[in-house]
Amino acid sequence: MNHDEGTLDVLNRLRMDVSALGVHELDHGLDDLEGRVLPYATFPMLAANVSGSDALSAEGNGRGVFIKEVDGVRVGFIGVVTDELPKLVSSSTRVQLTVAPAVATANARAADLKDGDPANGEADVVVVLSHEDAASTATSFSKNVDAVVAGRSHVSYAQTVTGVEGNQIAVVQPDHYGLKLGMVRLNYDRDTKKVSVVNVENRDLKQEYCYEDDFGGVDIFSYKRYNKMMDLGAARPVAQLGVDYLRGSDGVTPGVHTGTESTAADLVAESYRYWLADIDPIEQPPASTHYVGVVRADDLKADFRYKSTGNYHGEVPADQVDGLFTVDEVRNVSPDDKAMGYLSITGADLKALIAQQWRPGADPSALQLGLSANVDVIVDAAAQTDGGAAPTIREIRVDGQVLGDTDTVVVASTTELLTSGAGFTLPNGSGVVNVGSLGRDITTNYLASFNQQVLKPSYAKRQVGVSVTPKGASTDTVSVTMDSLAYTHPTEQVLGARRVRAVSGDKEFFSQNVDLTVDRSGPTTGKASFDLTIPADAPTGACRSAEATTCRWVTLESVNGVGQVLNSFYVEVPADASPGATPSATPGAQPEPSATTSPTPAPSAEPTVGADPTTPVPGAGGTASQGPGGEDSGDGRVTASPTATPGDGSGAAPSENPTAVPDGGSAASPTAPVGVGGLPPSASGGGAGESEARGGASGRSTSGSGGWSLARTGVSLGSGVIALTLVISGYLILRRRRQAD
């Protein structure tokens, strides 16, 4: 809100001795760091492994080192920042700075501090301040390092480890946002000049009270009134969740798998798309057929949980808090002050961006992008590039239309990603428009726009792998391989795709359960492989992607446990492969399965796991009948509450002939012997849950801003400083009043 000056104020009042440089100090560029941040802080910020900035190199005693004498003992601090810094800053900052390996640099500086040469600085005790995860680096430090204070990964860590030379090192990582106070106690023997570890711990500040004199009588409690008002604003509910929106799971630990699609990341990406149509008209992006939202999976630091974690200060009854999602909880999901922007690119550029999710030889080998709801990607794992290591992108559909390589699309994301500063490369980074909004505020506004509707995911996947090849000499039978049909968290797997079925006209003629084994490092969870014989009486029409003129085609659908269609694709073979077949209609006129003709009608709500307290569905319900997927299809309660499915509305109008292959432009691979492509939800039998009905490809809301009134939290707009301390809340309320006028 104020470029973290409030945080710096508190650290200055605490009389902080020293800090390592982090990533977000460079969010606004090197000039901002040198001209504003470093002078504002009363303590040095160290980055021994970063060169290219004279001001940064001069911090402390220079070269990323600061030495302080404590009771006659010289303590040397070495600051280093993550090796991944070049991927996490803007391209303009990246070319100005050079980053050396953090651990190697720290070990080299530590050796200098203990080599007995006063010319390069000497210290009795050496502490490394490392902006990198402790668990991944702690044991790599040398015998000259006595303690490590780490950060970045937001994970609590406190233990004594054995270094690379057999030495004992005290390592602490005190969680994040001041939730814990890291304590390291070392013993220095003045006679032997040896350092030993006494203990290392993290003290939970939520369970302890820090008195005013704990830090030398520093008066940090002048912030009490400010903090109380901020707490009240943060407690304001902005959305009503019906279930969780979760990050990826590796099958063991929830929230750690960033190489797979997640409902949480897709929700955030959809909020970015919505923002494009909602920003000030003066800053409106240029006219374009398509708006798309994109977010890196690892930008999300928490889940959207149904089980409330908010503090409502007694303003909401305890039995009514579950499902409410607050401003503060949105901040927990997107805690970083990442500025938002947009960039106009081509369809080919978007395809290249999505292809960068696979990173052969890197760790992790995949980093997923959350995509807005109007984007559907077909990945062909069988047609690989880069020596067979990375799948190709067969087709991208935006707003129900195949995206051509020369089509224009406007992408909304963080300026970090758009300027090629987040490990992804985009052309024309200089064309990024930064309008000064923060990602978390955009997501907050988007959630509030639903006006207290209960929000649930559709569990349709944005990115699915589909490969279809002829089986033998005849193209009547094809081999189909599908992946990425399911999410990774167990509760979402119950609610998501359970089986794949093939439909010809209005007849289901094939079904197979989805293998839900979790891909722990990539996006392919939810697999199905089978041979499929296209019926001789299948509908025919002009070929879309097969190398022929007229094709017979069927629909492949992934469905959940009660038969609701989640994702749909067409598979086509040349019609002349079956001489007895005759064209059934011209393209755009032949029938194809819809919600009213498919064998299993879609009910009005999806099932959930009644026994799992992490994903309950409030409201009246009953027991859903077992779905057609077999014994493993699951059952549970169904909700009777009105729901909205954020991001289900693609903006495409339902087809007048719901079983016709929609007119969506040319396919991406028109020279294959058999064809495959995606179908928009409106043409494939409908999706699970109710469509968001955003009112068009732009994603503009048709229902106003919405959100809870501030009266729900006991705060009034009569407060003289409400506009300052409750920026998000004030914006929403004032905006809704303007619309009401």
UniProtKB/TrEMBL annotation:
Coiled coil: none
Extent of Low complexity compositional bias: 591-608
UniProt-recorded Gene Ontology molecular function terms: 5'-nucleotidase activity; UDP-sugar diphosphatase activity
GO BP terms in the entry: nucleotide catabolic process
InterPro entries in the cross-refs: 5'-Nucleotdase_C_sf, 5_nucleotidase/apyrase, Metallo-depent_PP-like
Keyword Transmembrane: yes
Keywords: Membrane, Transmembrane, Transmembrane helix
Gene3D superfamilies on file: 3.60.21.10, 5'-Nucleotidase, C-terminal domain
Classification via SUPFAM superfamilies: 5'-nucleotidase (syn. UDP-sugar hydrolase), C-terminal domain, Metallo-dependent phosphatases
Gly residues: bias regions: 619-631
Top-level taxon in the UniProt lineage: Bacteria
GO cellular component: outer membrane-bounded periplasmic space
Keyword Membrane: yes
Signal sequence, renumbered to the chain: none
Membrane spanning stretches: 715-734
Segments for region (Disordered): 578-706
Name of the protein this chain belongs to: LPXTG-motif protein cell wall anchor domain protein
